[in-house]
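User:
Note these tokens:
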Amino acid sequence: MSERIAFIGGGNMASAIIGGLIKQGVSPQNIDVVEPSEEARQQLSDSFGITAQAQANPSLATASLVVWAIKPQAFKDAAVAAGPFTGNALHLSVAAGIPTDSMAAWLGTQRVVRAMPNTPALIGKGISGLFARAGASAEDRAQVERVMANTGEFLWLDTEDKLDVVTALSGSGPAYVFYFMEAMTMAGTEMGLSREQAEHLAVATFAGASDLAQTSADSPQVLRQRVTSKGGTTFAAISSMEDNDVRALFIDAMYAARERAKKLGAEFGTA
């Protein structure tokens, strides 16, 4: 990949993608970054040898792809600043909530793709939902795939509203896993294990169960049923969760995440 790629924002997600690109053979000299934070610019220099800029400038005009890796609150102002230099580029956004209609209006182009990644992208094991506007060509989509493949898996969505569902499910999903790990660790500690022992068991259990679910032809429901013998210890635990409506409460939590994604779009994504 010899094209110049520009990043608006140089935080964790940008760094994950940049790290993958460099491993793929992209030269740091072909990567531009606009990042207001001096600390983040120094981190990019230390990690990748990239000299990031504090603000948008005409050098962005050489980029064939611009990756928007900023908070939704900052998107409009950043687009207004960078847009005059990036009209010929393909634009890929990993910002939550900001609709492509607004991006297209702010940036003056229909070549816009949205992605919703998650934090395991930092180690190349993420999964992203992707949506492309009609103005993005097949080659544009292929270029996005080459970039996002560095962060893990991806899947294309046929309508943009489904990205809010992806946000609620996999975008926020790692936090749900960590939340349950915390609870399992706390319970294990209360019942007599050391914190290190309990945390090790919790993390390894999630890792193993995830690998089993990925490699098995059976659904998670079937896999759960196989370890839930009636009258056994797992049955007691699952029954307690069902009696306390844990499943329903968890589903409600995901709906809350989706609604927040919608509100972010309405609040910060109106062109």
Notes: DSSP finds eleven helices and seven strands in the chain. The longest strand covers residues 126-132. The radius of gyration is 21 Å.
